Amino acid sequence: MRKVAVLILLICAQLLIGFEISGNPENWLFEDFIGFDEVGDCTSRTGDISSVFIHPETEKLFLRITFDDMYSHKSKIDNFANENMQIMLIISENGKELFKEKFDTNKLSGQKQAFAFLRTPSYNLVEFSIDWLHSKENLSFEIQIMNNLETVDSFTSDVNRNFRGGNCAFVHHGNQGLTYTEVFYGQNPQETSGFDEILEVHQATDIPGNFHMSGTLMPAAEWHNPEFNDWLENGVDDGYVSMLTSALGQHIMPFVQNDMNDWSVAVECDMVEYRYGYTPKVAWIPERVWLSPENYPDAGVVDWLGNNWEQHGVEAVILDDWPHCSGHDNKKIHWMNNGVGVNLRVIPIDNEFVGKMHYDADGAKNHISSTGQYGITVYGTDWEVAAEMNEHHDGFFLDNYESVMWYCYDNYPAINVWKLDEALNNPDFNGSGIDVQNGTYGLCGGENGYGGSNNSWYTQWASAISHSDYHTPQWNYGTVWNDTYNNLMSAPNNSLSQLAWYTLMINLHETGWHTSGDVADWEHRYSSHIKNANVYAAASRWQNGDYTETTGCYLDDIDHDGIDELVIHNDNAFFVFEEIGGKANWIFYKDEFDGGYSVVGSDVSYYPETDGDYNENSSYNHFAALSDVSQNMQHSIYDISVEQSSGNIVRATFSQQGVSKTIQLERDKKYLNVTYDFLGESGYVKSGWTPDLLDIIWSGKSHLQRMWGDDGSYCGQRNSANGATIALVLGDGGASHNGEFEGTLVKGDEIFGENIFNLRLFAGYTSPPYDANYNKVIELDELALEVFDDIVPQLNENALKVGANKIQLIFNESVQNIENIANYELQNFVENYSILDIIISHNRKVILILDQELALAENGNIVVSNVTDLQGNPLDPAFNSAELIEIIQPHLVGSMNNWAPSNHDYDLILNNNGVWEITLDLEIGEHQYKIIESDSWNGNDWPANNQIIDLNLPSLIEIKANCGVWPILKNGDEFVTHFNPVVVGDFISEVGGINWNPEDLTGEMLDEDGDGIYEWQVLVPTGTWGFKVVLNRDWEQDTEGNAGNYSFSSDGISTTIFSYDMEQNLTSTSAENSIIFGDVDGNGEVQAMDASLALQKVVELIAFESWQIIVADVDGNGEIQAFDASLILQFVVGIIDHFPIDE
After folding, report:
1. How far is CA 995 from CA 585, 668, 987, 1001, 1070, in A?
2. pLDDT on residue 5
3. Distance, CA of 649 to CA of 664 (rounded, Å)
4. Which helix (H) or strand (E) holds 367?
5. I want to staple 116 with a disulfide (CB 3.0 to 4.6 A). Which of 111, 391, 936, 1094 is the partner?
6. Count of CB atoms within 10 A of residue 511's CB?
7. Which of 962, 1055, 963 is nearest to 1017 (CA)?
8. Measured between alpha carbons, how far is 130 from 138 in angstroms, rounded to an integer?
9. With the C-alpha atoms ordered 52, 386, 505, 482, is the resulting torsion angle positive or negative?
């Protein structure tokens, strides 16, 4: 309870005419406010007074009481409605009672001859209109709130005045890496968390908030959730959003050079104004770390921050009341004394208020009401806290925040909530000149600096060895960032050097942050990529014309990590390949006006998966061009051979196990010629695109246009703002498109091809698209016509004896006409053999089955003719013959032969279905095995782990194997199983099993005809589902090939047939319409019982499953009716021979 002064002086000239109670709090003026009552002092669940207003009129007196808990804004419940609530109002003059009346306020209104009241729950408001013929001077008021006739709260006035109102401001600092984040809309359940919850309450109350979106979070939102940025922009227009600024990448500012700080502040200020149409005047200091050289804590300190703001329009910075403003009023806005010529204001965060906002909503409300006219209390912390994100999830901070917002809303105009840039201009809040003290907030180190112990977080980080450095000795992060900074300072100022600055400053994000006493893992992932800014700096020199050689191909440590990269460039395009993956991590081009564009590389995006130069296969935030994902060598070290380093044409070749690619660049061209050789296998290649990274940082996807030629002749992305284009031009070169992917600031394509194929990698300007879908451009159309496959197929020189009467041939790519026995001639054999049959797999592997067993030491030749590749290129006449050689038969090695690799007691036999097999007679117990393709432990054994057979009874066990395309060497395409394959997936629970459980046999497949193709048939509910085939009832052998899953769709009617071709490791699905209309009981026949069941369904005696609803609707009108039952019966007795739906 509290007593509040009331002294009302009637000055008729100042009175409003026609005032009335209307349920609108905005009718009341600040001059009408007479006092607050303490929130939280009510002894009942409802009836807590928060403020009181009096408005005098001629012969009228108006009274307003605002409650804190009459109405719940969150649940929209009127708490007075079901309570016996009364208000006793007593008005006195100099101790003489003039008015006393009790009002029943569970009702919404009431009226008597001399007074009336109106209760407006949605505003927590009760208003009174009283006929008043008495004096209006020296009045006092006593208000009692009663519930069930007991006083639960009261407000009493006396002659002391204290009604100056309350002032506050709310600051939310949003800061996440440049990547996808849940913070905008929350974690599950989304309705209880997320930045949107905070924005919603500000929008609903029209109460201004001061919001900061960091320079990494703004582009993250623009890419993934652009509507959130639009929401803030609309909030600016509507007046409830004030935007703050800061340093772009949220680096810890005192530890870097002044140039770096000045650049970061300038760019973020520009970005805020561009993005939201708001000119920011107030700045958030990253982690509120304010330090100065030569003043403790000063370890690692380079720059004092006070002179980095005003030149960019910033008038004030937000810091903590302790330690920064220690000894000064934390409810005033001060001036900074530090620094000559600096006129920067300092806004203290009231940390007591912050704590109350989180843990004591009533205390926060009372804290606001205590400020008076001449003070302002500022709430300021990470946006995630009140939004209940991450470690704050499932708390009560959001409920408390919303409660305080509605308190401010209900108690207007006694409570005023401020935009900070407007508060700067209110002289009532002016403080004094102060010397800002060094330090940060308490949890981050307080007066002992960043991390405590004299800035220990920075010094420990700066001395930590970079996870991506290979110098001898290795460089630490302090050396890396200083080297990068010095390199950038000597680079010309152009678009690509600006990207170098973005890369440096964003990867200094939260410089040196620690968790559990060590540099955070995520911090390492940022810091390890600071060095990538050097690539952009080098490209900026090329853009500037500083390279003496127009065309070049050479090895150079362009990113300063201690290992050479391959650089290949001409006067139009600049490519940088890493030896990791032999892939193009960076691609740039310049136009005729020397404008430079980055079209591959996204180093400003957060690295959630790697602290090296690797692709990220889950987030796709970083994915280089020409990444060889299958054969999966994208993270392997490639051999690089520079074959032509200068001249009109420059060329290099990258080689790894199972793949080789040659790149060639001609003077004046805007593309690389690329030739892939997957050494007889299928190859899959992914490439990530960022057409004009600088524009994408600012504009998100809004300027991106999909490039897609007829029949997939080219694929890529174009930036409509400037024509920057990056694309793979496939033409008829032998490769085809296989899919798309997307990460942060990255869109990408996957292609595939067989063995050897050609393509072009284009980087340059293209004219605007000419088609209605904005997919096609003239320049890429013309290039696609120039790309074709002129590579002739070849036969491997070795023919393998894979069985007593079986010979295997292998071509280096998919070929045609290989099923014709007449195309094979056996020469120089000792005996005369005839070819009885041919087994074909993989479109290039041929097994000839002879009419008799091959003689010992047989070594003839097989000559092939009339065979072409899929483009019609004939077989190379120099490689059309193969010589028969003996091989080491693939065999078992395991517990049954004491793991002796040279023991051949358990050789596999190649069946006529192309599957290798052996049958074991095993005793009770555990048996282990692997397959080996040599006689020693030289890496040719598989799978990686021992396969286990555990028997409770003596058993005959069949082991079946796919020994790969080349069964004399482990290539990673081998598979083995001693169980039937099993289908697993996310639909198995729908058909009676357990989802994604390799030991669940619901999806067990069978090879009933012995052709090596296993099948399982099942009716799956309507939908799109994921699945894969597992072998040996575990996850070890990846039949999909890229650790992914297959998908299929079901209409809920047709049976889905899953097939697994063991010989080729091919998984497929097909649908078979097995439905019989009218067969309601599913027994395969239409009978009288089916008509009876349909009729029972019509009268709701029984329920149908989804498939029964389909088959019973024989007239096809979408409903089951008596007519359907009649039709079924007519069909049974022969009156009709088909149903209407059959037509």
Report:
1. 39, 56, 6, 11, 21
2. 31
3. 7
4. helix 361-369
5. 111
6. 28
7. 1055
8. 17
9. positive
Q: What is the 3-state secondary structure (H, E, C) of 1066-1105?
A: EEEEEEECCCCCCCCCCCCCCCHHHHHHHHHHHCCCCCCC
The residue among 623, 624, 618, 613 whose CA lies nearest residue 530 is 613
Integer Cα distance of 318 and 333 in angstroms: 10
The rounded distance, in Å, linking the Cα atoms of 12 and 112 is 27
Which residues, in sequence order, are CB contacts of 1087 under 8 Å at separation 6+? 1081, 1132
Whole-angstrom distance, CA of residue 1041 vs CA of residue 1078? 43
Q: How far is it, in rounded angstroms, from Cα 21 to Cα 633?
A: 77
Residues 6+ apart with CB under 8 A from 221: 184, 213, 228, 229
Dihedral through CA 290, CA 294, CA 300, CA 305, nearest 10? 30
Distances (CA, A) of 942 to 631, 810, 963, 982, 1040: 17, 22, 10, 20, 17
CA 626 to chain centre: 23
Q: Determine contact, residues 36/51, Cβ cutoff 8 Å.
A: yes
Alpha carbons 889 and 910: distance in angstroms, whole number: 10
Q: What span, in angstroms and rounded, lies between the C-alpha atoms of 1049 and 1028? A: 14
Q: Exposed, middle or buried: residue 340 (CB in 10 Å: 0-12, 13-18, 19+)? A: exposed
Largest CA distance in the chain: 135
Tokens of 799: 């023919």
Q: Where are the beta strands (DSSP E) in 714-794?
A: 714-719, 724-729, 735-743, 746-765
- Residue 1113: both structure tokens together: 């609707």
Whole-number Å distance between alpha carbons of 685 and 665: 20
Pair 799, 862: CB distance under 8 Å: yes
Query: All domains of the chain, ordered by start, with CATH?
Result: 2-163 (2.60.40.10), 167-448 (3.20.110.20), 530-786 (2.70.98), 798-886 (2.60.40.1220), 891-977 (2.60.40.10), 982-1072 (2.60.40.10), 1088-1142 (1.10.1330.10)
Spatial distance between the Cα atoms of 707 and 693, rounded to a whole number of angstroms: 17
User: At what angle are helices 495-506 and 533-543 packed, to 10 degrees?
Assistant: 170
Which DSSP letter does residue 194 get?
A: S
Taken in order 1083, 1085, 1087, 1091, is the CA torsion positive or negative? positive
Q: How far is the C-alpha of 121 from the C-alpha of 80, rounded, in Å?
A: 8
pLDDT at 3: 32
Whole-angstrom CA distances from 1105 to 992, 1082, 1094 are: 15, 11, 12
Distance CA 984, CA 997 (A): 6
Q: Name every residue whose Cβ is closer than 8 Å to that of residue 232 and which is 6 or more positions away in sequence.
A: 199, 211, 213, 241, 243, 275, 276
CB 646 within 8 A of CB 553: yes
* Cis bond upstream, residue 877 (ω within 30): no
How many whole angstroms separate alpha carbon 320 and alpha carbon 446? 10
Q: What is the pLDDT of residue 163?
A: 56
Asked if residue 413 has a cis previous peptide bond (ω within 30° of 0), the answer is: yes
Q: Mean pLDDT per 10-residue run, the chain (1143 residues)?
A: 33 53 95 95 97 94 97 94 95 92 92 93 97 88 96 80 82 98 92 95 99 99 99 99 99 99 99 99 99 98 97 99 98 94 96 98 98 98 96 90 98 98 98 98 98 99 99 99 99 99 99 97 99 99 97 99 99 98 99 96 98 96 97 95 98 96 98 94 94 99 98 98 99 95 98 93 99 98 96 95 97 93 97 96 94 94 96 95 97 98 98 97 98 96 97 97 92 94 97 97 97 96 95 95 86 91 95 84 90 92 86 91 93 92 83
> Phi-psi bin for 700: left (phi > 0), alpha (psi -120 to 50), beta?
left
Q: Give CA–CA dist 253/308, Å, rounded.
A: 10
- Residue 697 CA, distance from chain mean position: 16
